[in-house]
């Protein structure tokens, strides 16, 4: 089911090149973080998910109507990513696209992104997603396909740590032995 989000913070952005995690097949992927205070966006997402849970075709595919038995895409950052300050006060979901179907990535004015560094983990985006029911290899739930990203505005990039000039020290460099 096609769904266009409200504002979301982009994280783990692999939207221009495929990425393979832990030996899985390479895909385009990202995490989308939604402020818990954005009630309108959260309500729309929950309404979509509740509709999918109630759909008879999905229930047949899963072989159950018990939501607790399914993997749900919308998760609580305060619980599942408690050690990451970027996820504090956020709900999040992961979305991906197969290599044959790269996501469309555009700027606010809907023009294609010329420089991939303009859309980065930490900026605010709107996403076009496909929600779908799955039952594969013993896993059942609702998955999220990534169709498009629209950059809305800049913000502080998410990084593990920043490097400053003072982090480099000459104390460990011996000029005489450096390039012998």
Architecture overview:
- Residues 164-180 have a biased composition (Acidic residues).
- By secondary structure, the protein is of the alpha+beta class.
- It has a single domain (2-172), classed as Nucleic acid-binding proteins (OB fold (Dihydrolipoamide Acetyltransferase, E2P)).
- It is built from three helices and eight strands.
- Strands 1, 2, 3, 4, 5, 6, 7 and 8 form an eight-stranded mixed beta sheet that branches.
- β7 (124-136) and β8 form a beta hairpin.
- It is globular.
- The N and C termini lie far apart (63 Å).
CATH classification, class level? Mainly Beta
Q: What value does the Rg take, in angstroms?
A: 20 Å
Structural class designation: alpha+beta
Q: Helix amount, in percent? A: 10-25%
Question: What's the tally of helices?
Answer: 3
Task: Characterize the main sheet.
Answer: 8 strands, mixed
Low-confidence spans: none
Gross morphology: globular
CATH superfamily, by name, is: Nucleic acid-binding proteins
Give, in order, the helices and strands.
EEEHHEHEEEE
Averaged pLDDT: 92
Overall CATH architecture: Beta Barrel
Instruction: Estimate the strand proportion.
Output: 35-45%
Number of domains: 1
Number of strands: 8
CATH topology: OB fold (Dihydrolipoamide Acetyltransferase, E2P)
Beginning-to-end CA distance, first to last residue: 63 Å
């Amino acid at each position: 089911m096609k769904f266009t989000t409200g504002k979301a913070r982009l994280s783990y952005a692999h939207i221009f090149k495929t990425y393979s995690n832990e030996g899985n097949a390479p895909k385009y992927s990202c995490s989308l973080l939604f402020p818990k205070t954005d009630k309108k966006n959260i309500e729309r997402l929950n309404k979509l998910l509740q509709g999918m849970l109630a759909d008879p075709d999905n229930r047949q595919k899963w072989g159950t109507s018990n939501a607790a038995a399914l993997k749900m895409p919308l998760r609580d950052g305060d619980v599942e990513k408690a050690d990451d300050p970027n996820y504090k006060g956020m709900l999040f979901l992961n979305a991906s696209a197969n290599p044959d179907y790269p996501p469309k990535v555009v700027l606010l004015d809907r023009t294609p992104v010329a420089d991939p560094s303009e859309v980065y983990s930490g900026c605010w985006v709107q996403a076009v997603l496909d929600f779908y029911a799955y039952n594969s290899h013993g896993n059942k739930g609702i998955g999220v396909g990534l169709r498009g990203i629209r950059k809305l505005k800049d913000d502080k990039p998410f990084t593990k740590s920043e490097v400053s000039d003072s982090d480099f020290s000459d104390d460990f460099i011996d000029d005489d032995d450096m390039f012998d």
